[in-house]
Design a protein that fits this description.
Layout (H helix, E strand, L loop, with lengths): L7 H11 L9 H4 L10 H7 L1 H33 L4 H38 L1
Helix pairs in contact: 4-5
């Protein structure tokens, strides 16, 4: 059996590895674990987001427009069916505005109620 002879290049490489400087120290910042942020409630995160407020405003606006247009169309088709002029169209428009305002007010009151409950939870907890 032939013995494996190391070449001069391999010996130089091995000597270079032995003479290498020690690895650098790990900074203090990287040695300590980072504290995790507190877990927030999904509703709390949504209330802090500006995008959530924008989407809520768009939802309310589209609900308003949809209610008015829907009732207006019902009045228009009732007018065509009865052969009357703008009577049911105007009634539909008034009903649509009334229904839309009712929905906006009820949604606002519900949101205020939820916000008040959240504040009370924070004060107690």
């Amino acid at each position: 059996m032939k013995r494996h002879e190391t070449s001069e290049h391999e010996r130089e490489r091995a000597d270079g590895l032995r003479d290498s400087p020690p690895p650098p120290q790990i900074p203090e910042l990287l040695r300590e674990p980072v504290a995790r942020p507190p877990v927030l409630d999904r509703n709390e995160v949504a209330s802090q987001s500006g995008l959530a407020n924008v989407s809520t405003a768009w939802g309310v606006a589209m609900d308003f427009v949809g209610s008015v247009i829907g009732a207006l169309l019902l009045g228009y088709f009732a007018d065509r069916w009865q052969g009357t002029s703008p009577r049911y169209t105007l009634i539909g428009m008034v009903v649509g505005f009334t229904f839309a305002l009712y929905r906006i007010i009820s949604r606002t009151l519900a949101e205020e109620r939820r916000e008040k409950e959240r504040r009370n939870k924070r004060k107690q907890g």
